[in-house]
């Protein structure tokens, strides 16, 4: 239901994946802890949630994810050492991740897909609308997407997905949305009429890819419970959203809106795009950027 006064506080971050694309780095370290310059990718995602007002974060984890819990907890020994040295700058860096949000954990147990991971959050979330943030997608804080999606949810109700136009030959890597205009809305807000998980070029209804940000109506849980395994034998969030996109009975929580994102997004999901993200972000940093850019210019001449 639309409710302009609705306050969203909860974010769900699926983090149970094995990170096989980054082996051997991820043999004993969760992929979410891989540094983007000097900050674990997962911290950037939590910072994004907090910036949109969502400071109750539930991570859906699995085995070997203990470093995530340690990262968002106080580190007494390290803090005492830094304090004794008078290194306040690093002390603040260490304290920041523990102070950011109220972080909770639930285990997924079996790797049954993204839809199943979201379903694991049902108890914690209850009957409120909530956001889902996928850790492989980083959104530049200068181009706030989640805030826009929350605003759309408040005004229109239902669920909201983030869409980005991608070259058609890449659409098989994403959920794909069929869209229609929404009269009275800006051109970045569209009605989602259908969704297909990772279609072939021929099957794809458009070039709009679902990127890893969702604002979901709690009715998604009831739908997920009944959603059969889909692509890859996994319970797909895209399939549950498809049901919600078709089911637009007033008051039932259905209806899916898309927010078309045209800002800066960094993909850390595979090795090449991860390296590109790190270089791009490091180039923009005040402390590292000037030297790195100068070196890169020289380095490319040698290629
Ligand atoms: C997941 C979703 C897919 C979405 C993508 C965004 O896929 O299933 O619909 O487009 O995230 O990054 P994954 O990349 O986890 O295979």
What's the rounded overall pLDDT mean?
95
Overall CATH architecture: Alpha-Beta Complex
CATH fold descriptor: Spore Coat Polysaccharide Biosynthesis Protein SpsA, Chain A
- So what's the overall shape? globular
Give the radius of gyration: 20 Å
Q: Poorly predicted ranges (pLDDT <50, ≥5 residues)?
A: none
SS class: alpha/beta
CATH superfamily: Spore Coat Polysaccharide Biosynthesis Protein SpsA, Chain A
Hetero groups: 1-O-phosphono-alpha-D-glucopyranose
Largest sheet, spatial ordering of strands? 8-11-9-10-12
Number of β-strand runs: 13
Largest sheet: 5 strands, mixed, barrel
Helix content: 25-40%
Q: Which CATH C-level class is it?
A: Alpha Beta
**What is the chain-wise order of helices and strands?**
EEEHEHHHEHHEEHEEEEHHEEHH
Taken as a percent bin, the fraction of beta residues is 15-25%
- Tally of alpha and pi helices: 11
Oligomer: single chain
Distance between the first and last residues' Cα:
56 Å
Return the domain count: 1
């Amino acid at each position: 239901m639309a409710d302009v006064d609705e306050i969203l506080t909860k974010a769900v971050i699926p983090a149970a994946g094995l990170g096989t694309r980054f082996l051997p780095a991820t043999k004993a370290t969760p992929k979410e802890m891989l540094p983007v310059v000097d900050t674990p990718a997962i911290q950037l995602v939590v910072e994004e949630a907090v910036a949109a007002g969502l400071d109750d974060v539930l991570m859906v984890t699995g085995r070997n994810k203990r470093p995530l819990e340690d990262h968002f907890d106080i580190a007494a020994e390290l803090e005492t050492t830094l304090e004794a040295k008078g290194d306040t700058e690093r002390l603040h860096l260490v304290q920041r991740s523990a102070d950011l949000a109220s972080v909770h954990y639930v285990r997924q147990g079996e790797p049954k897909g993204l839809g199943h991971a979201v379903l694991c959050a049902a108890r914690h979330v209850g009957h409120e609308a909530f956001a889902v943030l996928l850790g492989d997608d980083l959104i530049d804080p200068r181009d706030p997407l989640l805030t826009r999606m929350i605003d759309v949810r408040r005004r229109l109700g239902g669920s909201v997905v983030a869409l980005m136009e991608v070259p058609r030959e890449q659409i098989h890597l994403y959920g794909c949305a069929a869209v229609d205009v929404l009269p009275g809305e800006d051109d970045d807000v569209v009605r989602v009429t259908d969704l297909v998980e990772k279609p072939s070029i021929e099957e794809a209804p458009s070039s709009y890819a679902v990127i890893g940000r969702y604002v979901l109506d709690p009715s998604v849980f009831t739908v997920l419970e009944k959603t059969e395994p889909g692509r890859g034998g996994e319970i797909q969030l895209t399939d549950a959203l498809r049901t919600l996109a078709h089911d637009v009975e007033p008051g039932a929580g259905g209806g899916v809106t898309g927010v078309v994102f045209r800002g800066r997004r960094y993909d850390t999901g595979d090795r090449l795009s991860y390296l590109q993200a790190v270089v791009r972000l490091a180039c923009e940093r005040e402390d590292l950027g000037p030297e790195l850019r100068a070196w890169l210019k020289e380095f490319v001449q040698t290629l």
